[in-house]
Amino acid sequence: MKPILALASSLLTVTLCAQGQPEEKFAGTWEGGFNGSVFVVLKIHINGEITGSMSNFNLEVDEKGNVSSAEAIDGESPILKTRAQDDSLTFEWNTDPKEAPLKFELKATGAQAAQLRLLDTGDVKIKPFNMTKRT
Questions:
Q1: Domains and CATH numbers, the chain
Q2: Among positive and negative, which fits the CA dihedral 99, 59, 71, 42?
Q3: Contact, 89 vs 67, CB < 8 A?
Q4: ∠98-99-105 over CA atoms, to 5°?
Q5: Mean pLDDT estimate for the chain
Q6: CA–CA dist 94, 69 (Å, integer)
Q7: Do the beta carbons of residue 112 and residue 132 sit within 8 Å?
């Protein structure tokens, strides 16, 4: 009976470790740039749950959804309602609690690379922009 219990315990440990892996790839500091300047910094912490913050920024896009202008603004706001699944981390972010939060997806495209995409943008088309993990 003990060997079965030990095996079950080992399988449970392996399963729990495997479940914790998706979010680990997102832990750290990510930067998004435009024309050689960083305009957004996303900090992600894993402490049993996914928490973090994103710096405030202004973003403008052209009619095709490409970033045409981007600049950093003072301050940062927490990321909320985080959820990691496979190669994606979704979260909400808001600089003004009186307004509806913006929804984002950070999709890993490499070990130190990802794309950040605004979700639910309505009629405004916004293409994802590249993020690089600071080392």
A1: 23-133 (2.40.128)
A2: positive
A3: no
A4: 135
A5: 85
A6: 20
A7: yes
